Input
Amino acid sequence: MSRSPTRTTSVTDVVSLKAAREEAYAQFKEHQVVGRLTKQLSKLSDQLLVSLWNTCDLQSDATLIAVGGFGRGALFPYSDIDILILLPEDKQFFEEVLASKIEKFVALCWDTGLEIGSSVRTVEECISEAEQDITVRTSLLESRLIFGKKVLFKEFEAAYEKSLDPKTFFQAKLAEQIQRHYKYQDTPYSLEPNCKESPGGLRELAKDRV
Output
């Protein structure tokens, strides 16, 4: 997990995001370094997310976290931007203050061209979901603070690490892989392989990193 928040820069709307992405793609044609491109795309998305977060007056009321591949800082072209909006445990504060702001934030993300996958949870809810769903567990493993309350993020990290049983996690990931291979005919040599999910695909690379 990374604790490095991202600062707001000039990418603040759909026009500047599109221009910055096009520049990143143009640079990629020259250097051909995939890792550099995915980091650039992650950084650009961070910048716009922070700008929208502040526009919605969320600041330190909640915590904005990148998860999954986006949490790794490796955002591929056309990939969803997976985020977690971490809430304080105070339900009344959420209902009276945060709910409408978060709804506006999510809507603005889509309006500005950020194809996000979002979840809104407390620390306790994160751990509960992770214990029931290996996909959630894996996604939260690669989390990165973008903006918001650092104390709340550290609380989440501590709770997550305490709840993680490495042996159980490994066994669940192995079972998940076997099931996925079976779904895609257990071969990378399909006539039309799924580049992400088939054996040897991008999902395999991500699993090995975990």
Confidence is low (pLDDT under 50) at residues 2-9. The chain has nine helices and four strands. The first helix runs from residue 14 to 31.
